[in-house]
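Troubleshooting log. The previous structure file for this entry was overwritten by mistake, so regenerating from the original sequence record. Sequence copied from the archived sheet and checked twice against the printout by T.R.
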Amino acid sequence: MDLLNTAQDLIRFRTETGNAAEIAKAAEYIKNKYAGTKVKVEIFQSTASPVIFLRNTDDWDFDVIVLGHIDVVPAADEMFEPYIKDGKMFGRGTLDMKSFAAVAMNSMEYVAAKGLPLKFGVILSTDEEKGSKSTESFLAAYPNITAKIVLDNDVGGDISKIISKCKNPVFVKLIAKGREAHGSTPWEGIDANELLFKTWQNIRKIYPYYSAELSQPNDFWFDTLHFATFSGGQVLNIISNYAEALLDFRLTENSSVENLEKNLQKCLEKGVEYKIVSASTPVVMDEQNEDILDYKRFAENILGRKIEFEHIGGATDSRAFAVKGSTVIMHSGSGEGMHAAGEYVEIESVKQIADIQIKFLEHLAKRKMQSD
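Regenerated output below.
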């Protein structure tokens, strides 16, 4: 498979989350890539967005699964026409994460063509940028699917880092209810906006505010919060009787949703309530895990330098497998501008990730043959 051409072909599909027509075209493109091969391709759909499932086995206990997605955040038209300059490929999805979806497709083709004795699969969702409901639906439909190892390339940014920890994203809605009154007689009403602001201030006493304008903490591995949206009031001269805000918490493995709820209860002003919109689980891997260390050695040999472990605040779809006991190896290529106008990936890093992945799969296949 021509890795870079495949990546560029994928980028040309305008697969912004929810663009069903373009996503369907991209899924068909991927399916056609394996026509005449031994690869089984299923386009699973029980929600508005499909999941593309590639595999070389009918069993559900996989040796290795590569997890990724092909949807992207919105962008200008020109970003769906990739171009290469100074060793970088620019375009929407170059880093997040169509280049690495192409890497997964390349690995699938390689395993099938070489007949490696691995039960191998690739799962590509199409709504990851808006919560991965398609992946949840897919895994609910196939509850027996397991994988000893999951390769997760959706942590782009720096090929010199392997991610060993991801936080738990917990999204919370605050709802404040007051009483309307004319703006000139505020003593006759109860301002929902004020109730929400006071609750906000109470919460900030537990989860402080951070920004680029303030001094940076030495250690980033703690619970964080940012207020994502706020709305309240509709008319200038009327005291608001309703206000709401969406909060984005990122919790480490040392915290819990239950403890978060206790903290929220302490902070609520009268007339304010909260709702957990969604919660997940942190992904925490043992840095001394044998498979992770094997992978790390291959990566260091190919890159010619040491690789470090890193912790990130972002979430990963691989959490669904981590809770089943899978070893999750989170590693991707280098680039910048994820979700931004100047998004790019370093081309050499894409080739290196593909090389690392194949060398690691060959190693696993050899080890499996020796143990049989």
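The chain has two domains: 3-166+282-371, 168-278. Archived copy saved in two places this time.
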